[in-house]
Design a protein that fits this description.
By secondary structure, this protein is α/β, with parallel strands linked by helices. The protein has one domain: Rossmann fold. It has a seven-stranded mixed sheet. A hairpin with a 4-residue loop joins strand 2 and strand 3. Helix 1 packs across helix 5 and helix 2 crosses helix 3. The radius of gyration is 15 Å and the shape is globular. It starts with 9 loop residues before the first strand and ends with a helix.
């Protein structure tokens, strides 16, 4: 089986824990896994050994873990490492859903491997995994236009139109879960990007 045919066994949503951050742009990854939990009958539970909230969802004969680290964004790697070690999940079987400043709200793309692009959650996961061959779901949140405003921007809720565009992109992304769980990477990419 090639790396493009590797089934996804763990989907990590990146965000910050607590009600203060629920509606902020930086929590787009949490929004994605929350949607998967609702659609596929999961129930997030506090899992101390995984430093976060975890649940398992089933799609036909396939199953997948969902994880929301509760370590804050820049410490996400510890939670990912703990769950992948416990269930013997390889880096190539992980999809990390995160907010993406480089894409406008409504744009969402799948990507295999790569660097952290300045994203602190990805930076910490890379440090804990020691490799970059996990997949990413990049959920566009737009850019404030000035890099000095990025921190304030990502920690605020999007306006109504942007929020609707982000929600629509998350909804489209949930539709490629069957392809991701069966390892049909290119088919998932083609469906999502077209």
């Amino acid at each position: 089986m090639s790396k493009n045919e590797t089934p996804i066994r763990l989907i990590v949503g990146l965000g910050n824990p607590g009600p203060k951050y629920n509606d902020t742009r930086h929590n787009a990854g949490f929004w994605f896994v929350d949607r998967l939990e609702r659609l596929h009958g999961g129930a997030f539970r506090q899992e101390g050994k995984f430093h976060g909230l975890a649940c398992r969802v089933h799609l036909g004969a396939r199953e997948c873990w969902l994880l929301k680290p509760e370590t804050f964004m820049n410490r996400s790697g510890a939670a990912v490492r703990a769950l992948m070690d416990y269930y013997r999940i390889e880096a190539g079987e992980i999809l990390v859903a995160h907010d993406e400043l480089d894409f406008e709200p409504g744009t969402v793309k799948l990507k295999k491997g790569g660097g952290h692009g300045g994203h602190n959650g990805l930076r910490d996961i890379l440090a804990h995994l020691g490799k970059a061959d996990f997949a990413r779901l990049r959920i566009g949140i737009g850019h404030p236009g000035d890099r000095n405003q990025v921190v304030d921007y990502v920690l605020k809720a999007p306006g109504r139109d942007d929020a609707r565009a982000i929600e629509d992109s998350i909804e489209r992304s949930t539709g490629v879960l069957p392809e991701l769980l069966e390892g049909s990477w290119q088919r998932a990419v083609n469906r999502l990007h077209s």
